[in-house]
Amino acid sequence: MAPLEHNSEMSLSESGFDSGGKRNFLQLTDRDGEQPQIASDESGAADSSGLEDSSQERFIGPLPRDGSACGSGDYSSPSYSYSSILSKSDTGYVGLVNQAMTCYLNSLLQTLYMTPEFRNALYNWEFEDSEEDPVTSIPYQLQRLFVLLQTSKKRAIETTDVTRSFGWDSSEAWQQHDVQELCRVMFDALEQKWKQTEQADLINQLYQGKLKDYVRCLECGYESWRIDTYLDIPLVIRPFGASQAYGSVEEALQAFIQPETLDGPNQYFCERCKKKCDARKGLRFLHFPYLLTLQLKRFDFDYTTMHRIKLNDRMTFPEELDMSPFIDVEDEKSPQTESCTDSGAENEGSCHSDQMSNDFSTDDCVDEGICLDSTSSTERAFKPKSLLTFELFSVMVHSGSAAGGHYYACIKSFSDGQWYSFNDQHVSKITQDDIRKTYGGSSGSRGYYSSAFASSTNAYMLIYRLKDPSRNSKFLAVEDFPNHIKSLVQKEKESEEQEKRQREIERNTCKIKLFCVHPVKMMIESKLEVHKDKTLREATEMAYKLMELEGVVPLDCCRLVKYDEFHEYLERSYEGEEDTTMGILLGGVKSSYMFDLLLETRRPEQVFQPYKPGEVMVKVHVVDLKSETIAPPISVRAYLNQSITEFKQLIDQATGLPAETMRVVLERCYNDLRLLYVPNKTLKAEGFFRSNKVFVESSELTDHQVPFTDSLLWKLLDRHGNTIRLLVLLPEQSPGTLAIRPLCQKGGEDSDGAFEGSQGNRKSVEAILEESTEKLKNLSLQQQQQGSSTSDSQKSSDTSDFEHIESPTQDADSNSSLCVAADNRELENRIRATPGGSGGASSDNENQFACEERSDSEVNNDRSTSSVDSDILSSSHSSDTLCNADSGPIQLANGLDSHSITSSRRSKAHEGKKETWDTAEEDSGTDSEYDDNGKSKTEFKYLYFRAEPYSQDDASWETQKCLVVYVDKRITLAAFKQNLEPYVGVPSTQFKVFRVYANNQEFESVRLNETLSSFSDDNKITIRLGRALKKGEYRVKVYQLLVNEPEPCKFLLDTVFAKGMTVRQSKEELLPQLKEQCRLDLSIDRVRLRKKTWKNPGTVFLDYHVYEEDISISSNWEVFLEVLNEPEKMKSMSQLAVLTRRWSPSTMKLGPFQEVILESSSVEELKEKLSEISGIPLENLEFAKGRGTFPCDISVLEIHQDLDWNPKVSTLNVWPLYICDDGAVVFYRDSTEETLELSEDERNELMKKESSRLLKTGYRVSYSPRKEKALKIYLDGGPVKDPGQD
């Protein structure tokens, strides 16, 4: 790629550009290590946001994306204006920022702000610092907000201070509430805060009206009534059960005051007539507030679907509303009444104080004998019609459904009569047409289904103001503000200016990641924030202090260099640019940088090496083949065009190794080793990049004469690249050092040479391993002499092929590790620790290991059985079945013998032997290291393993012993476990491996064939004692079925079942465990196992059933154990076990469960059995199948009519019964038994008891998509009970 000369006069086509619409590419690069410069335009005008010189108008490079804050910060397009984002709307109004779901709050706040009377009254209130904390003062925070809305130059301001004064935390911002509910709660909170002030009655004066709730006898004319107050009028959109909605607000208001007639069973008891009479019940408005609030009840409940719905029907509302037709004019003619009791108002539009609004009246709830014409409200009630005209000025709109949506407000300014849309931070002008669009509905007729197809954006709350020139106010101008508001304005202005200055500083601050190799703290990371006009020298001093190097390294021994953390590459140094500004060096102020900075340090006698662009960094590791060690890296910088010979000479200067005999190996990527042997080949051709790692070795050994992949150097590097460091937590041991627990021997075996633990004087770890290694060697030689099947590689193996195992020791002076000759085959042979290589099978459990401990899953059944991943949680097992191809079964260390993998459990059952259950197929959920002939399925290689004690600092690992294990991650889990045997103290078949994840979650590693490749350095592993599963075995969770207990499913223990095992044999193994662990002493003939599907009891397993043949079984299987009161009656698969329960209507009770065994699926047989156990005559017996999951609970108040009693079928396995398996629940009753008559109180009491009982069993759990949180404003600033809300 040829560079283009900037002063060339050649045309673009002459320079090589393709014409004809073809795409051309330009690459901008540093020239001689210098950054691209800023070019000025012809006018030489400078962008005020850029550098101070005149050459900073345009940045040579790609243009920033639209909407982004310009990728190059200040070096940006001149059309970009940072302030344009923050400037006020051209309407002159300021928006409110939506915190998350606070649009309903923003709509109400903007409406209150645009109400002159409310805003002016709020300004006239003065906050007293001495009386209250300003943070928790709601009126003060509202006052601040209104001042900012009126004077701020921002486009939108935050409401967090207001919500904080409400006592809300950040979670409240994610709760959407009803705007009308918020209005009530906020007004109540303001009333509480304004007590004993001039604004104490402000809410009542502006928003409170009065109405009369009356009942009038139609026979004598007697009227009982009471006065209620209201803050808003709820208007029904569509009457209950109606097919059409009201078409206008006037129509809904007329329906609101329309009386209803109480007749028939709803007759009213007249105090004058002393009898029940027909009456008329209704509401009358006595007084309308100055600010009239109408709530359109668009949210309803659909009793068909049992869900909340939103009614989107069209409802028009006028710009001017005449309320005179709705005022009461008959109050003077009302007869003398007595005090009103409960008026019995059941109309949805009733306006009782507890249904409509908080009662802010100081009057009693019941007004007795009021003379209406003597009250001020009556005077207002008979005002001329022209004084009852209200003008619309706020429409709060909801867009969405009953499940959620968005609020915004359309508000008319009383200053200019213009309508504006206040949609969170956006404020814009709108027209009357936009207001009419909020009517809702569609253009068609108002039919029943019109709401479903209508627009979801419609008016929800309307606020009108009374047209009364004597009361209508104008907004206070800034010059007319009270003194305390002027002070507040000045204070907020200064705060905003300070924020602006701080924002300007932030705009000009470069924020870049900074690293430092601290002499004490090693590599540390921080963030350097430096102004773009600061010089490199000043930035270095800031970084020096930030990294706390004062007193550790002199300042003149530090410098900042360009650094690539990902590649660990030092890109370049800045020699001679100490006075250059950071804005130029870093390429401008950016939100993120593609590089980092490194604060490099040196010793006083050293000199900094210059880093030039184009150089590559090489980390050189010196390898010593004699000690088999690899030294820490030395950094060397080279050029990509250097040859291998020149590169070796460079390394010679850095390390002192002779270049003549030097071997250089490049690690290009993970474990990809490349020997650099071509002298004239360049580094670039060999694959060098920005940051590289090489290993060098220069010795007189003949290792360089063999092929590289067969050399000792390659093996050492291969081991180095694949070795990981694991922290292994061992199980609890007896007090003392990391002594090895003795391998348990079979009874009667020769324990000579074993671990002499019984004599109390344990041998050292080294002695134990040395002794066991000799035995392994001898055993391996014996096998070869006997003609045992071994591979060629095994036959030629010698001590050089053995793994390195370093025993744990407390001797700090011992640096040499014990090298033990054993490949994976020999390691597996450790479990055959006795000279008697072959022998007969043992037939008793006594041959199990004497030191076998209780499985961890038996202690804590939850730790290893979390349902995260079936692969991860497949039960562990061990490959302890070592079969000899030529001779008989080889006796295993646990006393069991191994049979051919194809042997059937059932064919061996007659031999009377206790066998290992190793007959599972390949897909049984567990693995084996061996094939069907017992041969190893994997080719074993030299794999590294070394362990040493670890003094842990993890508090959770304090009480147990811990190892640091260095292991080749290509080792299989089986070989890894066998390497751990000397440290755990038991064979690998007797312990399990758990991998520890985040939050200390543990999951068992079970795939013995898999390697440790998924592990990484410092992963934690926990070892737990307990027999690991063998091939074909499954861990099973056993639960007790207690059909008549409140909790019918009780966990007992974990056990092991295997393919080929019969149900009776599994019972035989299970009963001793139940006696030991659960203290259940049971007889095998009184115990039943049955299928468990969640909590439902299913098929009864018969004694002769065989797992995996008759019964499907899987990992982490669950099974029910049922204790029988009599010997098992289930003998055949044709039988059916049904759980029955009697329902007694006369006592309203359910009897206990009783099991019925049927010989067929006949309904007649079921009835006969039920008649037999209950004594109910056959012709009177009725039954019904239970619903849901076991125990099929149902309320005794509903069972009589809710179940399908006495279905007309002859067999159980057809609709509607479908009883085809054991465990079905059947209720039955006597059809002649009368149902108990209950009083209302008795029914309510029984309903409560049933609800409590059924709630515990999970009966009829109702679906709730989101739990709604009650809207509260906390007057003390915290979420505690507010007495004002009671």
Automatic annotation (TrEMBL):
GO MF annotations in UniProt: cysteine-type deubiquitinase activity
Compositionally biased intervals (Acidic residues): 918-931
Amino acid composition bias (Polar residues), ranges on this chain: 336-355, 807-817
Transmembrane segments: none
GO biological process: protein deubiquitination
Superkingdom classification of source: Eukaryota
The protein's name in its UniProt record: Ubiquitin carboxyl-terminal hydrolase 47
Protein species of origin: Oryzias latipes
